[in-house]
């Protein structure tokens, strides 16, 4: 626990000086605030931008930041040094995961500003689940990639699928059929009526299968490669 | 302190280390020399338990490597061949991480930065350091927890002569404190100057091992004495009585500028054994 805290502390200092990661964290909360206040169109669903950007936030920020943090530390040999200083790989991953999750939750709080009070808790709950799955996916990529370049090339397609499919699904039925297999689309449905109850079985099955796959791949990757 | 017996390692089908054996006693500076791709970094990773190996035996800190505990690892300091510091963090923030991990007081950070010659650069971010300064910061990080066994992977590669000397002094200081030091280098002069024992590694095999001066003597096939006279003329004499007489005469005439022996330096020895230059890429 102490070691994970050390990682969190280190990461906090680093993020303040790391523009690419910082932008990941604040881009969508900022855009949400701006768009929700600036644009009001006839017939647009309520909190359209909040819901849309929330899902994109889930599909992008935790995924890219976790993958980039881990792969950079591998490339720059800092991870090796930490492990030699007897930080356990799981302590490290835990530190990074908790850190990214907390920062994203803060972003989600900002995005929740315009929502009706009674919806806020449910909204944060849905976001919390999304961040968690996305963090595991990012960690898988971080474990597989040996440097930042390879991490980026793995992150790109995954990010596209997770964050853009739900958006495109709104306009295209074929895409919608594909998007349904991914947790982000199902969470979008949850956000639409601000509830995790009363959805079709498909929602729960997809979420469950996504979680299981993320955990399984993570477990296998970790067992096979560790943080080497 | 360290003992290797027949250590072998392959990546996929490629044998990188082919039966490495040597030992290092406490307080020694051991130098592993070899061209790029010889397997130096791989061996360091194995000796520090970061990488598994396929065959043989590795003893580090007088224990089988698999049995090293967290407590043992605390006695080890390691500087990898590249990076190893957080570029965006300041020098002191970098060291704070390890102070936190090892439970060392922050006051030690200032002290150690001063010690390695980074006294004025505490607040500067690591990415803004010169190469020489970055090397000092990396050393500061290694020295932080006062390890007894120190691994330095090419500590001076790419540094200017002055920074190199400063680093050499820090390394020799650590030896005086009783530390055992394992270092790798491409630089033969450096090895001859610092190391009590060197091993020449080529394509995963140790081709020669011993005291640097002994190795050079061993390959002194020429066995000549080279005289440089005040006239600028150079003479080669063999190791025998007539030469002694000749030198005596010349010395009396006061015409000898310098006397050299003909033993090769480590660089030439290496070239002779392997047909390869150490710094091929340079
Ligand atoms: N993880 C790995 N997977 C596959 N091959 C590897 C791996 N690590 C090292 N190698 C190979 O092993 C050989 C030795 O590499 P190593 O890094 O130990 O050399 P080195 O002596 O440290 O070289 P340099 O002086 O350039 O640092 C190289 O041919 C390298 O390509
Ligand atoms: Mg190397």
Structure, explained:
Chain A is mostly helical. In chain A, 81% of the residues lie in helices and 0% in strands. Chain A is built from 10 helices and no strands. Chain A has helices spanning 2-17, 19-38, 48-75, 78-84, 89-111, 117-144, 148-168, 173-179, 183-192, 201-225. The longest helix of chain A is centred in the first third of the chain and has 28 residues, at 48-75. The model of chain A has no long low-confidence stretch (mean pLDDT 92). With 282 residues, chain B is α/β, with parallel strands linked by helices. In chain B, 36% of the residues are buried. The interface between A and B is medium-sized, with 21 and 27 residues. The structure holds adenosine-5'-triphosphate and magnesium ion. Magnesium ion binds at residues 40-41, 81, 153 of chain B.
Summary, kept brief:
The complex is a heterodimer of chains A (228) and B (282). With 228 residues, chain A is mainly α. Chain A contains ten helices and no strands.
Top keywords for this entry?
heterodimer, A: mainly alpha, 10 helices, globular, B: 282 residues, alpha/beta, four-stranded antiparallel β-sheet, binds adenosine-5'-triphosphate, binds magnesium ion
Contiguous helical run count of chain A: 10
Main beta sheet strand tally, sense and closure of chain A:
none
Mean pLDDT across the residues of chain B is 88
Bound molecules: adenosine-5'-triphosphate, magnesium ion
Gyration radius of chain B, in Å: 22 Å
Helix content of chain B: 25-40%
Uncertain regions spanning at least 5 consecutive residues of chain B: none
Strand order of the largest sheet of chain B: 6-7-8-3-9-10
Strand content of the residues of chain A, in percent? Answer: under 5%
Instruction: Write down the Rg of chain A.
Output: 18 Å
* Global structural class of chain A: mainly alpha
Listing every helix as H and every strand as E from the N terminus to the C terminus, the arrangement of chain A reads HHHHHHHHHH
Strand content of chain B: 25-35%
> What is the subunit arrangement here?
heterodimer
CA-based shape of chain A: globular
Largest interface comes to: A-B, 21 and 27 residues
Biggest sheet architecture of chain B: 6 strands, mixed
Distance between the termini of chain A: 22 Å
